[in-house]
Amino acid sequence: MEVRRIKRKRKYKVHDRQEPEHNFMKYWRLVRTWANSNYDLSQQDIELLFFLYSENLFSRKDFKEFCYTLSWDRKRFSRFVKEGWIIEWRKSTAHQTALFELSFKAKRLVNSVYRKLLGEEPISDDRRRNNMFTTKATQSHMRSRALVAKFNKDQKD
What we know:
Elements: H1 28-39, H2 43-55, H3 60-67, H4 76-82, E1 86-90, E2 99-102, H5 104-117, H6 139-156
Antiparallel strand pairs: 1-2
Helix pairs in contact: 1-5
């Protein structure tokens, strides 16, 4: 008895790969680590600054409203004022609540993060300008150094 082998044509899948339209969040963790190490802010503090950046003027109530989504930190508002991230725009009176806005320092930080994510600004690898490159850097900062070089190379291309 003879065994017949049937030849079948293999079906190949055709993959049409498209470049993603947006990929600026690719390095979000690296940029966040840079901001954390250079400005002594937590991830939640940075997210709060992003929220307040678009608010322009805000009251203490608006500040607390967004803080409900973050971990509990009762002294966050006073810490932001003390460290210069928030300034008082209008003092409270009998008929008006106090209004606040982000300071120049906070606006500069948020703008810098946006520029880095959009590829308009590199992350400095100079130890005088970036705490990730100091001799007292943590292990995670040391591991991130190679990624900073790749990030800067991608920004140039």
